[in-house]
């Protein structure tokens, strides 16, 4: 799913279904995630770069796409994103390389828009 619109639509639709179940624990986890990435003493760009690096190391392609989208919205440059990619690959090791390929492809799809 490398189409950003398709990914965002799917994510939104599924989040609505999940939150529509009115499960207190799941709602709190979603809220915690939202609050963690809000502006604070660490700025949003830095938080998204941290989220991107962690997502790559944990090898979560959906999370990588999400954070790449946020990084793009916040105006990160290609050079900044590739620095994050390099740190994540260094920390995560060569097993991250397949995710790096998909992340690069997704970043390029965001730049086309």
UniProtKB/TrEMBL annotation:
Q: Which residues form the Carboxymuconolactone decarboxylase-like domain?
A: 25-105
Q: Which domain of life is it from?
A: Bacteria
Query: Which Pfam families does the record cross-reference, listed alphabetically?
Result: CMD
- Family matches, as InterPro entries: AhpD-like (IPR029032), AhpD_core (IPR004675), CMD-like (IPR003779)
Q: Which NCBIfam families does the UniProt record give?
A: ahpD_dom
UniProt-recorded name of the protein: Carboxymuconolactone decarboxylase family protein
Species this protein is from: Algoriphagus sediminis
């Amino acid at each position: 799913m490398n189409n950003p619109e398709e990914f965002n639509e799917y994510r939104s639709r599924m989040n609505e279904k999940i939150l529509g179940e009115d499960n207190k624990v799941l709602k709190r986890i979603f809220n915690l995630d939202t609050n963690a990435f809000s502006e604070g003493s660490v700025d949003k760009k830095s938080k998204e770069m941290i989220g991107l690096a962690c997502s790559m190391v944990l090898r979560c392609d959906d999370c990588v796409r999400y954070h790449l989208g946020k990084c793009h919205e916040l105006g990160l440059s290609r050079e900044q994103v590739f620095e994050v990619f390099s740190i994540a690959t260094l920390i995560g090791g060569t097993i991250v390389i397949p995710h790096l390929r998909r992340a690069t492809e997704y970043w390029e799809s965001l730049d086309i828009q």
